[in-house]
Structures are given as structure tokens and as C-alpha cells.
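Input C-alpha cells:
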């Protein structure tokens, strides 16, 4: 099989940027409310809100621009700050993983390895139940894994 890149399309990246904007407005409101109500040590509180906002911002941008290369012998994760390749022989399972909050849910695909913790595959996540693109990308990853493990 030829090498295949998996990542978010333009519309999904645009939605990700929209949510980054919502997150920024939420944290700006929290910082203003904290500044207006806290009487002692207010800069520590405002600074704490800013640090959490920066961490959340980095996570969402990194998640939105992450991509995965599927090759016949390995799967390679590429994000803004890291590159990691895992041979198919070290993978024991590939499955969707759901996250639930009070206001919604989202799903990602995780790779379970023989050694070490499971890893989220960059470029494959959704907040919509029954998303065809998400299910299609999951099927492609599983197909590469099945073909690689069948040839061993």
C-alpha cells in the first residue's frame, strides 16, 4: 500500500479555530471577573487563568494541525512539536475513545502498544456522533494495521 497522510480537512480546521476563539473569550471573561472580584493576590489569580489559557490554546492548536502518516511498515505521528514513528508490530489495538463532559462529547482514535501507554492518533478526532470522515479514517488505519500484521 502507498503511504497515506491523515489529518483534519479545511472545514474541520476552521471549526477548531472557531472553538479556539470561544475558549479565548471564555478565559478573557474569567480573567476580567477574577481581576474585578479578588481583593488579595489578584495578579496570581489572573496569571493562573492566563497560564491555563495558554496551555489550552497550545493543546487545541497542536491537536488541530497534527497529522498521521500511514506507511506499510509503520505509523508516524506529526504534531507541531514532535514526530514519532511506531512499527505496526508494536501495536496491539486501534480503537475510538470517547470523552464526555457536561456540555458535550468528543472522540479520538487511540493506538495501544505492547510496551508503554496508549497514544492518541493526531488528525483523527470529532465532536459529532456518526461522523463519516472520522469513521473512514479509523477504517483506513485499521486496514493498514491489518495488512501489516497479516504479512508477518
Amino acid at each position: 500500500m502507498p503511504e497515506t497522510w491523515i489529518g483534519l480537512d479545511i472545514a474541520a480546521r476552521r471549526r477548531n479555530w472557531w472553538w479556539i476563539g470561544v475558549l479565548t473569550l471564555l478565559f478573557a471573561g474569567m480573567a476580567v471577573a477574577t481581576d474585578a472580584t479578588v481583593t488579595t493576590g489578584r495578579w496570581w489569580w489572573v496569571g493562573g487563568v492566563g497560564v491555563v489559557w495558554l496551555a489550552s490554546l497550545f493543546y487545541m492548536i497542536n491537536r488541530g494541525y497534527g497529522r498521521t502518516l500511514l506507511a506499510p511498515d509503520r505509523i508516524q505521528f506529526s504534531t507541531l512539536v514532535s514526530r514519532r514513528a511506531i512499527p505496526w508490530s508494536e501495536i496491539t489495538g486501534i480503537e475510538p475513545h470517547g470523552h464526555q463532559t457536561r456540555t458535550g462529547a468528543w472522540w479520538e482514535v487511540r493506538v495501544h502498544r505492547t510496551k508503554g501507554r496508549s497514544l492518541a492518533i493526531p488528525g483523527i478526532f470529532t465532536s459529532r456522533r456518526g461522523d463519516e470522515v472520522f469513521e473512514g479514517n479509523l477504517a483506513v488505519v485499521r486496514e493498514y494495521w491489518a495488512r501489516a500484521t497479516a504479512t508477518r
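Residues 10-37 form the longest helix (28 residues). The chain is about 45% helix and 30% strand.
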